[in-house]
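Annex B. Sample input.
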Amino acid sequence: MGSYVHGYDNREAARLEDQARTLEALLHADTGFPQGSRVLEAGCGTGAQTVALARRSPHAHITAIDMSASSLQAARARIESARIGNVDFLQANIFDLNFAPAHFDHIFLCFVLEHLSDPGAALSALRRLLRPGGTITVIEGDHGSALFHPDSDAARAAIGCQVELQRRAGGDAMIGRRLHPLLVGAGFGAVRVSPRMVYADMTKPELVDGFVRRTFTQMIEGIREPALAAGLMVPEHFDAGLSALRRTAETGGVFCYTFFKAVGQAM
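Annex B, continued. Sample output.
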């Protein structure tokens, strides 16, 4: 297993909620499961994606799992607040699930594989839980896809700190580009991957605020102290990178980032 480098505090929970709300249409417009389907959400965290998943498949039964008891508590509260009734929660490890083979019709993971030291093994373990013909949906980002104007070496270096910290924790912040080979290698067929680009300039204020400021830049802000403690950058250079990222959310600024959504089928 890897570890979650962003932490579990209230600030991070709020960031995840902002991200889920801002990107729902981009990531989930084509996500939906038929009536009566048994769906596993593997690694639900605080339920930021669970709400969108459940609302878009109101007649499916969703089992949402996570290792963190505190995250599950927050996820339950979020689902109850949204008055959603088709989700059950279970504290469990992806690598040690006590479900019968072929138990689920569909499996869904969003921003999970990037934190695992062996994502291929996780996908293989999950495949055994899918009925033949069942599908898996995986969504991941790729920090190597971040493009912005005005350009900044310091901003790219600060983003690189996030990539390096995640690598040291056993994960891969650039895993989006690997989804196709990972799913094929885990034995899934009919794998197809679609890029989902976030493009934000001042004509798209909801993305500028919800994604550039409150999701991506806040994520980089959150790793400042670990990055400095690890000696990856000096404070002045890191802070210059943060200033440059904030500048992309101002007049004349542009920010792009690509997520990847993959769907595969159990053979």
